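ok new one. same drill as before - structure tokens go in, u give me an amino acid for every spot. 438 of them this time. try not to just spam alanines like last time pls lmao
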């Protein structure tokens, strides 16, 4: 049976209604250059909705393990250098049409975002700081010569997809569940010319995803699955430090951008780590073995300096080697604003963004100054690190099983605060409510 199309007039304003509760003050005013160059800018209000008349069944838990359990619909929008952004469409999920010489297939002209929408305990659906994801995606697109867009319009398109899929895929009877969202922009022009593509395709898909961060988010939902990560989360992740001949990113490169070329080349090291019994690679850089990221997550340590100062430390952004993670940013902001004065027995600490090496970590472990370590990101949320293997040495990191599998006191505290926000236990501007299209 063919999909049924709804006219543009019938769905006009869908995206704006879906983002009724967006706090626009969080997002800086942006300038969509395509508008000012005489071509059409990205326009969420023109969205045309074609309903899927053959929706797929909700997958069972085993299907979720492959991370390909997509929902019924997706959003697409094409761009050309001569006309700008075309009319966006919300339509049944299905294949894309690309020629074998499409730019993305040869030159990795592709960027994306990873984000989630959450069904709260109050029955509402929320996005977590979506303005930051959309701003970051614009930056990633610029780095690989893909077209500019207004981040606010992208956010409205994301919200429109969530508003349509939420009722079925995140039923109100299953609070504390989520969908993974993947907005993606690719160079679609059919050319092998070494230049920025003159045609591009934006698409947004949603998936049911397994829980990767342990038991705190495991629910009674029949659709929830954790891939056995309760053990990893409760005991902490085991990290394998990258070998001297393996580098993920470098100053002046594109480690800060969420582009596919940052991920594919890292799979070889990740496979080795898994084969050796580790959960992720801890990526090091330079002759001093500077600590950068763990897998695709940002990495934090809590330690006491030799002069007795308690610090939360993570790698800086200035060299553009690491990703400006949304969860990373949130942890830093919470640490700076909520731990002064002490909260619930958690001592205040100094928040430091600076370069640090594995030698620093090794010394802190050996001298009993390392308090805890954890990773954070959209996939793993906040998860403790219990062990690092570095150049033939095994470093055991203190963890606690008393914090819902989050690890130490600080990781557990940050995770609790953020969990309360995303599932509506705390009303906060970071939790952006999406009005559902019932």
């Amino acid at each position: 049976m063919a999909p049924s199309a709804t006219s543009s007039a019938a769905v006009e304003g869908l995206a704006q209604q879906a983002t009724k509760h967006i706090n626009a003050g969080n997002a800086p005013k942006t300038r969509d250059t395509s508008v000012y160059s005489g071509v059409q800018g990205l326009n969420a209000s023109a969205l045309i909705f074609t309903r899927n008349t053959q929706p797929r069944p909700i997958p069972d838990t085993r299907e979720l393990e492959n991370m390909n359990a997509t929902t019924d619909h997706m959003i697409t929008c094409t761009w050309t250098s001569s006309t700008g952004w075309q009319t966006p469409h919300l339509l049944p999920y299905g294949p894309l049409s690309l020629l074998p010489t499409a730019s993305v297939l040869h030159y990795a002209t592709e960027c994306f975002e990873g984000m989630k929408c959450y069904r709260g305990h109050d029955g509402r659906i929320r996005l977590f700081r979506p303005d930051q994801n959309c701003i970051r995606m614009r930056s990633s697109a610029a780095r690989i010569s893909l077209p500019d867009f207004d981040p606010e319009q992208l956010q409205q398109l994301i919200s429109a997809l969530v508003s349509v899929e939420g009722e079925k895929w995140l039923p109100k009877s299953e609070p504390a569940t989520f969908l993974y969202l993947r907005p993606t922009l690719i160079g679609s022009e059919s050319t092998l010319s070494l230049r920025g593509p003159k045609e591009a395709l934006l698409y947004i898909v949603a998936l049911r995803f397994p829980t990767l961060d342990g038991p705190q988010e495991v629910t009674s939902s029949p659709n929830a699955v954790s891939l056995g990560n309760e053990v990893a989360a409760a005991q902490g992740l085991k990290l394998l430090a990258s070998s001297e001949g393996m580098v993920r990113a470098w100053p002046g490169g594109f480690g800060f951008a969420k582009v596919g070329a940052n991920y594919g080349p890292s799979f070889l090291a990740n496979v080795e780590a898994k084969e050796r019994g580790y959960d992720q690679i801890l990526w090091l850089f330079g002759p001093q073995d500077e600590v950068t990221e763990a897998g695709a997550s940002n990495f934090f340590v809590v330690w006491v300096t030799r002069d007795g100062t308690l610090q939360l430390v993570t790698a800086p952004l200035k060299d553009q080697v690491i990703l400006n993670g949304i969860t990373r940013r949130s942890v830093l902001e919470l640490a700076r604003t909520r731990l002064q004065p002490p909260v619930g027995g958690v001592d205040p600490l100094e928040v430091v963004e600076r370069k640090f090496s594995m030698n620093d970590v090794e010394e802190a472990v050996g001298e009993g100054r390392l308090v805890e370590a954890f990773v954070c990101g959209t996939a793993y949320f906040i998860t403790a690190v219990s062990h690092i293997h570095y150049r033939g040495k095994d470093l055991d990191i203190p963890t606690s099983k008393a914090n819902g599998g989050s690890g130490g006191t600080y990781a557990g505290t940050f995770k609790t605060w953020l969990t309360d926000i995303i599932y509506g236990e705390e009303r906060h501007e970071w939790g952006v409510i999406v009005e559902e299209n019932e």
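The first helix runs from residue 8 to 11. and btw The chain has a mean pLDDT of 87.
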